[in-house]
């Protein structure tokens, strides 16, 4: 990538690490559920309430984050985020009061999105030229995965050294506090006071947009369609394939957990690095996503039809997860070809994120009911088949949206060619 020197790398590292921490620390309960519950003497309902507090606050914070990223410098927002996470995580490690824990998770949701998410996307987008957008976003996703894996194993080590799981979890939070503080120091010294500007950017920095401009931009709505379909693929590919191998393929839970680790860690890293390079090979990213969505449809149909062949089915679940992670790690790179101006990135990502993550509130309960009803009827496979049909339909809509992206890119190219003689 052009101009990717040490200074650029440090900006890239700090941004990637900030998002890695923001999307790991508030969700440690997923990896260390029992230790989290024991440390604070919480029941299952209380644990679920902490999850809801984070998710609900995050959803409300996406549009706020777009405004913040448009008005304030990247350096200021990242420093505020890392400082907040350092203090909040320290308090989290010291408190024992459930109400305080709930407030902590609300603050995690706010600072993880309002002062970080759109600023991160805006910053990452501006670190590379148009030809390397998929590489920079894919590499950032993979770097986030590496950082989260290292932190996860480090916290696991503190659990092993502690006298009991509850103390171990709190020691892990002390470690996470130190990591947040470390990256705050890096951000203080390496983030520039002026926002990074893309190497090939021709847009003047004083161009300002409003939410009205965002909502009238055709490319924003095409991006929403592509990202929502890709995100649904990722949600199903990552969250339901492990339990499918247990409940339908009848493999052991320990083997399924091993496959889950491969899916959640190794595949994420591979998809980030490989996916970025692959998608940048497509002149038109719409064509790339058409290929990805068609692949998901084909392998999902094959999976639904091959449950009697366990080995093949396991491979298919991993391939679906890989393609889904390729899309998730690179889908923000389509903004250039969708015709979203660089200076619109902050506001646009706030609106796009708010809309595409709404299904998080809906599909979990719906899928859960499908599976419960199927289990009650004595045939759990029918519940998963309904999920697979949902994935196929979402992917077909994804194919259509990717075609619209392809058409949009070609229209923008034609329009740009028409204006060249006028500028000469």
- Main sheet overview: none
CATH level 3 topology of the largest domain = Growth Hormone, Chain: A
**What CATH architecture of the largest domain would you give?**
Up-down Bundle
Provide the structure class: mainly alpha
Residue-averaged pLDDT: 89
CATH superfamily of the largest domain: MFS general substrate transporter like domains
From the alpha carbons, calculate the radius of gyration and give it in angstroms.
22 Å
SSE string: HHHHHHHHHHHHHHHHHHH
Q: State the name of the first-level CATH class of the largest domain.
A: Mainly Alpha
Head-to-tail CA distance between termini:
30 Å
Number of domains: 2
The percentage helix is over 70%
Extract low-pLDDT stretches: none
Molecular shape? globular
Describe this entry's structure for a reader.
This protein has helices at residues 6-22, 28-31, 33-40, 44-71, 74-94, 98-113, 117-125, 133-161, 165-190, 211-216, 218-239, 241-247, 253-280, 285-305, 310-330, 335-338, 345-356, 359-376, 380-423. It is mostly helical.
């Amino acid at each position: 990538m052009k101009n990717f020197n040490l200074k650029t790398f440090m900006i890239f590292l700090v941004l990637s690490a900030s998002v890695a921490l923001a999307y790991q620390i508030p969700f440690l309960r997923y990896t260390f559920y029992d230790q989290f519950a024991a440390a604070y003497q919480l029941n299952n309902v209380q644990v679920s309430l902490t999850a809801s507090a984070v998710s609900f606050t995050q959803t409300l914070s996406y549009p706020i984050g777009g405004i913040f990223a448009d008005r304030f410098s990247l350096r200021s927002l990242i420093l505020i985020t890392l400082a907040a996470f350092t203090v909040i995580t320290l308090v989290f490690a010291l408190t024992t009061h459930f109400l305080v824990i709930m407030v902590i998770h609300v603050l995690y949701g706010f600072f993880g999105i309002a002062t970080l998410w759109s600023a991160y996307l805006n910053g990452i987008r501006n670190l590379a030229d148009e030809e390397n957008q998929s590489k920079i976003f894919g590499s950032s996703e993979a770097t986030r995965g590496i950082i989260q894996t290292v932190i996860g194993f480090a916290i696991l080590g503190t659990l092993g050294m502690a006298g009991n799981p509850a103390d171990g979890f709190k020691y892990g939070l002390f470690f996470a506090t130190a990591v947040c503080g470390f990256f705050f120091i890096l951000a203080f010294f390496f983030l520039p006071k002026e926002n990074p500007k893309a190497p090939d950017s021709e847009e003047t920095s004083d161009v300002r947009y409003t939410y009205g401009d965002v909502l009238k931009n055709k490319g924003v709505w095409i991006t929403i369609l592509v990202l929502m379909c890709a995100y649904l693929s990722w949600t199903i590919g990552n969250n339901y394939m492990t339990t499918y191998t247990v409940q339908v393929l009848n493999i052991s839970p320990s083997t399924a957990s091993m496959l889950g680790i491969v899916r959640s860690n190794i595949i994420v890293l591979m998809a980030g690095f490989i996916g970025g390079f692959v998608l940048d090979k497509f002149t038109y990213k719409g064509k790339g996503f058409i290929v990805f969505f068609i692949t998901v449809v084909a392998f999902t149909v094959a999976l639904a039809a091959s449950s009697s062949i366990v080995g093949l089915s396991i491979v298919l679940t991993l391939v679906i997860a890989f393609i889904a992670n390729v899309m998730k790690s690179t889908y923000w790179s389509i903004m250039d070809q969708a015709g979203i101006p660089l200076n619109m990135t902050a506001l646009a990502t706030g609106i796009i994120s708010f809309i595409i993550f709404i299904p998080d509130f809906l599909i979990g309960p719906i899928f859960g009911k499908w599976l419960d009803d199927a289990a009650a009827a004595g045939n759990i496979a029918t519940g998963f088949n309904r999920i697979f049909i949902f994935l196929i339909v979402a992917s077909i809509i994804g194919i259509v949206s990717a075609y619209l992206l392809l058409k949009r890119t070609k229209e923008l190219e034609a329009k740009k060619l028409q204006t060249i003689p006028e500028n000469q």
